[in-house]
Every structure is written in C-alpha cells, then in structure tokens.
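Quick start: load a record and inspect it. Here is Signal peptidase I:
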Amino acid sequence: IKRDDVLVFNFPYPNNWDRIEMHILKYYVKRCIGLPGDTLSIKNGRFRVEGIDEPLGNIKSQQKIGQTLPEEFPSGVYRCFPYDSIIGWNIQNFGPLYIPKTGDRLPMNLKNYQLYHKLISWEQKAKVEYKDSTVFLNGKPIKDYCFQKNYYFMAGDKGENSQDSRYWGLLPEEYIVGKAAFIWKSVDPYTGKFRWERFFKTIH
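Running the structure step on this input writes:
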C-alpha cells in the first residue's frame, strides 16, 4: 500500500465513532493519505506528511477548504477528530498526528489517550480510561503502550463532504479489503439514475 492509493475497506465505526467494530457489509472507498509510521498534518486545508514533499489527495478540494471561512462550513463539518476542546483540531488545521505501526511504543499522557484510546481498546478488547492524570488499561495504570497493529489515514477526494479519518480516526490495516481499480457502476444519489459516463472508469 502506498500514499494516494485508493482503497476499499470495511468501515471500522459502523454503529458509532466511539468504538471500532467489524461490519462485513459496510464498505468505504477512500484515498490513503498517511501510512504506518507517518506524521500527518493539515495546514490551511492541505494534507502534509512529515518528510514528504509531493502533493497528496485532491488538491483542488483541499484548496477550497483552505479558502473557506470557518463560519461558512455546514454544522458538524468544521470540527474534527478527536473532538477535544484542548486539542482543537479542525478541517483546516489538524495535527500533527502520528500514525502508529506495529511495535511502536508511545507514552500514555492525556493527549495520547485522546488520540489513541479507541485503537488500544480495540487491540486489547479491554476498557481504557483516563483519571487522576493516569491512563488505565483494564483497571491497571500504564505509562506507555506498544501498538500491535498498523494503521492508516484515509480521506475522500470530495474533502468538503467526506466522512473520513479527519472525523472518525485511523483505519486498522486488517480492515482493508484491497485497492480500487475501476468504477463498476455509478448511480446519482439524488436522482437514482445511472451515470453511464462513469461506468468502468479507471480510478487514479
């Protein structure tokens, strides 16, 4: 898997965005922006990966987001994961967010709890809590955590109207089904009519 690959995956938050679950009949198609081990940011709407200079994702959409005033975004669009007032990330300015890879050990402070507790809870099948300035895993205090899985940051090409990693967080590797190669069928969501010009169009 490379940055900018278009991937098909099982949506990891089918019932709510608080817990990772598997729903084998709910698929998303999004573009991979961040790989395991990357540090990703959004600056003025544009995706940035530390140490990488090439553009990522749909640049026109990102430019539009960067040029839009915060109050002009529809309700529920501007604020982003992890929806924490102290971290305060939004669709225009986000991160830096480190994307864990297998074997990474990160300190467990308040910020990292906010960013990673859903991943840890899913990996361990256990409750993760923050209280008294300490992170607890299954009732036991932890100072750091070693990740057991790889994760990815996914984004839609229509960035101003896309439920993606900016809103629900990181994608576990094992939820990835494969790479999208072409559009098999396209239906207008508003009219229900086939969009014949998009049938069998190659995905780039």
